[in-house]
Amino acid sequence: MKNHAEIKRVRAPVRIDFGGGTTDIYPFTHLYGGAVLNAAIDRYVVGKILRADNEVGLQYHAAIPTSSGLGTSGAMTLVWLALISKLDKFNRWDKIRLAEHVYVLEKTFGGVNGKQDQYAAAFGGINFMEFHNDKVKITPIKLPPKLVKRLEDNLVLVYTGKPHFAGSSNKKAIDNLVKGKNNDDLLRLKRIAEDMKEALVKRDLGRFAELLNKETEERKNLSRATVPRNARKVIKTGMNHGAIAAKVCGSGGGGSILFYGDKIRLKEKFGSKVINFKFDFEGLKALKD
Fold first, then answer.
1. d(CA 115, CA 131)
2. b/e burial code for range 49-87 (CB count within 10 A of at least 16 → b)
3. Phi-psi category of 130—alpha, beta or left, where left has phi over 0 and alpha has psi -120 to 50?
4. What confidence tier does 6 reach under pLDDT thresholds 50, 70, 90?
5. Which SS3 state, helix, strand or coil, does residue 69 take?
6. Lowest mean pLDDT among 58-62, 114-118, 259-263
7. Is 274 helix (H, G, I), strand (E, B) or coil?
8. Across the chain, what does the average pLDDT equal?
9. How far is residue 237 from each of residues 242, 251, 257, 270, measured CA to CA in Å?
10. 4 phi and psi, to 5 degrees?
11. What is the mean pLDDT of residues 169-185?
């Protein structure tokens, strides 16, 4: 029997994206510059290094449904790189460097992915992110605790039961961009993210909810697969049971739906499909035993 001894544990949060997703992907970032508003949540990918005799291995655990559209793969790769970095704590520069390495690694393996997932997992919090060429600017949205709680109390995350595959949805959107078919659609998504940031800064949650609906409507223009029949059915059910807004998570195509509205009614309706969460403000973190 092998003698297992844990060496190191690291965790990183997944994220919910409010607006601007897909504008963080090349070549849009280089043609127009992208903008995303997202938030890290307290659903984590936790990884650890294990030593068994003379062998060393990595082990992961994620308390999130498979292909949920919450940036799990980016968080997982970030945790992996953090584990092998030999760092016991992560300062701002470490997080930037690791997040960028995750993006490069995913791109090397042929992924059509953006940069928001890695940076959300690294930094935590509610952030407005801007992408210009290869540069990333992160602006934390600092809200008073009472407003953070109001936001948490009105948001409900529901897993649709259908897996989400970001690469497929993103590839269609970028192929259309290269052909000049959806440039205006993506620019409108970018503008929605900017407007959402302003709504939060002004503490206008009513306007914020309106923009969640607008984001979903604009996202439908990117591809029919963005909001498939199953997702439309879930959205309709939610809107009939206390929601005033709904946003497909990630690039759409399945995964999860974020609702804004009557949390009690929505949780009663969707039951076990609800992914309970609060915001995470720590980001990438080395854990103590």
1. 8
2. beeeeeeeeeeeebebbebbbbbbbbbbbbbbbbbebee
3. beta
4. low
5. coil
6. 58-62
7. strand
8. 91
9. 9, 21, 11, 9
10. -90, 130
11. 82
Render pLDDT for 100-126 as a digit per residue (tens, 0 to 9). 999 999 888 877 789 999 999 999 999
Decide: 283 and 9 in contact? Cβ < 8 Å: no
Are 42 and 280 in contact by the 8 Å Cβ rule? The answer is yes
| Tokens 């559209």 -> residue | 69
Q: Is 138 helix (H, G, I), strand (E, B) or coil?
A: strand
Sequence-separated (6 or more) residues with CB below 8 Å from residue 97: none
Among candidate residues 256, 193, 247, 183, the one with its CA nearest the CA of residue 217: 247
Name every residue whose Cβ is closer than 8 Å to that of residue 157 and which is 6 or more positions away in sequence: 16, 41, 249, 256, 257, 258, 259, 274, 275, 276, 277
Which residues are CB-neighbours of 229 under 8 A, at least 6 positions away? none
Helix axes 72-83, 92-108, angle to 10 degrees: 120
Tens digits of residue pLDDT in 83-104: 988 777 899 999 999 999 999 9
Cα separations in angstroms, 128 against 37, 54, 81, 85, 185: 5, 45, 24, 27, 20
Sheet holding 155-159, edge to edge: 155-159, 256-261, 243-248
- Assign 3-class secondary structure to 114-131: CCHHHHHHHHCCEEEEEE
Cα separations in angstroms, 1 against 4, 52, 126? 9, 9, 46
Q: Are 244 and 198 in contact (CB under 8 A)?
A: no
Domains and CATH numbers, the chain: 4-142+279-287 (3.30.230.10), 146-273 (3.30.70.890)
Alpha helices in the chain (DSSP H): 28-31, 72-83, 92-108, 116-123, 145-154, 166-178, 183-201, 205-219, 229-239, 263-270
Residue 288 DSSP code: P
Closest CA to 256 of 231, 228, 219, 224: 231
Q: How far is it, in rounded angstroms, from Cα 205 to Cα 148?
A: 11
